Amino acid sequence: MNQLIINLQEKRVNGAILSDGVLQELFTEENEFLSGNIYVGRVEKIITGLNAAFVDIGESKNAFLKLSDLSRQYLNQIAGSETLKEGMKVLVQVKHDAIGSKGPQVTGKISLAGRFLVYFPLSRAKGVSKKVLDQKERDRLKKLTRNLAKNEGVVVRTAAELVPEEVIVEEFEELKKEWTEILKDFKRARKSKLLRSEPTVADYIIREQLNKQIDEVYVNDETVYEKVKEACKRISRRPVVNLSKEDLFDKLGVYNQLGHMQERTIDLPSGGYIALDTTEALTVFDVNSASFVAEKSHAELAYKINVEAAHEIARQLRLRNIGGIVIIDFIDMPSKDYYDKLLKELQSAVKGDSAHIELIGFTKLGLFEMTRKRKSPSVDQLLFTSCPVCKGTGRVISPLVIVKRVVNELSKIQNINEYNTVKVTLHQRLSGYVEKIKQSVNDSIAKKVVFSFDASSPGDFHLTLIKKTS
Questions:
Q1: Do 453 and 426 touch, CB atoms closer than 8 A?
Q2: Checking DSSP bridges between strand 368-373 and strand 38-47, what pairing results, if any?
């Protein structure tokens, strides 16, 4: 059973998708996203070597624009010039949110997303979602796109499957009207500013996630409840909608599952586990059998754990919103047949992911390569921050190294008799090394050393020399 949750607490909206009670995807209002927003911008600088420009869109960081994203139609209709120049006013849409020190990436390929259609006013591209599998329905929708837009682009979304033609046409006219207003505002604008923002988190969840695959919807706000009920009228298979006044994340166990997202390892049903490591360049999943030895055949054992891992990794990609290059180190298997079957399992596992995923395949070393495109920061970036002690490395300096440094500093003290006390400040985890430090220096120093354990970091220590009073 698939459940969609829209949870409002203290005027903040969070959403989640559960499948048989297991958390699959999370939507949070912790950070404000720019992705999908449309701006009037001003070209600040053109970098010829990168074939790109930096554009001031009125946000804290300039946006990055690939010049290859600007079609001839865009240059003629929007820029009014065959080439882009510094200082020129441009109409851009945020393609990827700012991540880390990088500003947002914008594009001239403007799109307006509705529930059933994506409208491309500056393109002639037409198509139907690959997830619409019934050929008769695909033909119906393809014919509709040809009739809808002659000189514009339109892509029919999965949600349009089995939806009456007049409903889709109505949405198309609304999107077209919205584009006309955006163009008017763009022509009037004199400075960089936001022209159109993406809907609220609640509206986004309803538009993007409420579909025929959802069996139940849980909402704890009456206004959102009415919006969900209205949206359900346009779905071929309507879910049950429940209104509750409770904290739905608490009631349905979402908070408990969110706690596991801090963990580096993920247990598998058969006793194996996955280790997850993320770097700036890529994310690595390492599959291990651990204590699982139930199968007689090593090949069957490895395949069974790998299949479980493939489905769990697909879930983690969605849940954590992991993007970029992904490497999976599956357990070695003896024949190509097993790898072919595993690939089919992985293809099936990622089908429910709305992000664009490319499964590249196995390398000569047996590592599986894939990519996942995301438009917003990962959940890890939104919910967690680097540890102030280890700076996100997960490691601190060994106690033995600190002890050696302390001993070296103590040994450098000259004229020890001039001092009444030598105070050594350490972290609490080094309290068991007091005697070792004293035994490592000469007696004249050891007698005057006193210890305190107030240092905030395991790698910090401090020596204070207190002179004798006359």
A1: yes
A2: unpaired
CB count within 10 Å of CB 380 equals: 14
Buried-state track 422-444, b at ≥16 Cβ within 10 A, e below 16: bebebbeebeebbeebbebbeee
Which of 155-159, 258-262, 324-328, 465-469 ranks highest by mean pLDDT? 324-328
Q: What pLDDT was estimated at residue 207?
A: 87
The whole-angstrom separation of Cα 457 and Cα 389 is 6
Q: In the β-sheet with 126-128, what is the strand arrangement from edge to edge? A: 112-113, 117-120, 153-156, 126-128
Tell me: the pLDDT tens digits for 252-306? 999 888 888 888 899 998 888 999 998 878 999 999 987 655 556 788 889 999 9
- The owner of tokens 């997303």 is 113
7-16, 94-103, 446-455: lowest mean pLDDT where? 94-103
Instruction: Tell me if 251 sits within 8 A of 285, measured CB to CB.
Output: no
DSSP 81: S
Report yes or no: 268 and 308 within 8 Å, Cβ to Cβ: yes
Distance of CA 8 to the CA centre of its chain: 21
Measured CA to CA, the distance from residue 338 to residue 300 in angstroms comes to: 9
Residue 31 has pLDDT above 60, yes or no: no
Output 364-369 pairs: Cβ under 8 A, ≥24 positions apart. Answer: 366/329, 366/330, 366/332, 367/327, 367/328, 367/329, 368/327, 368/328, 368/329, 368/330, 369/325, 369/326, 369/327
Asked which of 15-24, 226-235, 302-311, 398-407 is least confident by mean pLDDT, the reply is: 226-235
Residue 292 pLDDT? 58
Instruction: Read off the tokens for 362.
Output: 């196995």
Counts of helices then strands in the chain (DSSP H, E): 13, 24
Q: What DSSP string runs through 104-147?
A: -EEES---EE-SSEEEETT---EEE-TT---HHHHHHHHHHHHH
* Other Cβ atoms closer than 10 A to 396: 18
